[in-house]
Write a structure and sequence with these properties.
This protein is of the alpha+beta class. The protein contains 5 helices and 6 strands.
């Protein structure tokens, strides 16, 4: 897929999309209905971003956002009779907002710089170790049926899926998304995962 230099933005307060991971969304606001129709008629890409603290009191229609986001492609959509949509995005690639542009649309559009995640080939051994540590932490919860994990996930997909699903404050998820490689993201994920499992009274050890 050729990635464009402009993306329509869909900022939300608490939804962080990661590459390779799926995100279901219910589209009901008029401006985002228009965004969805535009995406479906074109390359199907939507730039997911996160609203900064204080967005509720921001004047006008452009509350502040974090500049790092993740583009998702619409892999499933359901158009409802009243104009709303149910869609599923699959994360494609991270980006950084270079500048927002005024194209006269009801939704926000930005020029973006794509943030390539380096090939993990040189880090395979270290990434495998991180995966084993994650699996060791999750094993008790998996055994009890409290957590379900799709089979045959790649190391990268596993790290990103757990980063997205983990119940931590949005700032901590944003810090994971901003990590430049899957390996550094995995290393940052481990203590967050261990903390959440301890708080819920379960989990194994990374040692």
């Amino acid at each position: 897929m050729t990635l464009p230099d402009r993306l329509p933005l869909f900022p939300l307060p608490d939804a962080v999309l990661f590459p390779d991971v799926y995100l279901p969304l219910h589209i009901f606001e008029q401006c985002y209905r228009a965004l969805t129709r535009h995406a479906l008629d074109g390359n199907k890409l939507i730039g997911m971003t996160v609203l900064r603290d204080g967005w509720q009191g921001a004047p006008g229609a452009t509350p502040p956002i974090y500049t790092t986001g993740c583009a998702g492609t619409i892999v499933h959509h359901e158009a409802l009779e009243d104009g709303r949509f149910n869609i599923v995005l699959q994360g494609v690639a991270r980006f950084e907002v270079a500048a927002e542009v005024d194209d006269g649309t009801s939704y926000r559009i930005a020029r973006v710089r794509w943030l390539a995640e380096p090939d993990a080939t040189g880090d395979l051994a270290a990434l495998t170790t991180v995966r084993r540590q994650i699996e060791a932490l999750l094993l008790p919860a998996l055994t009890r049926g409290e957590v379900q994990m799709p089979p045959r996930l790649s190391d990268q997909a596993l790290v990103n899926a757990i980063s997205q699903a983990l119940d931590v404050p949005v700032l901590e998820k944003m810090a994971l998304l901003e990590k430049p490689t899957v390996l550094t993201r995995g290393h940052a994920l481990l203590p967050l995962l261990e903390r959440r499992l301890i708080e819920h009274g379960g989990g194994g050890s990374v040692h």
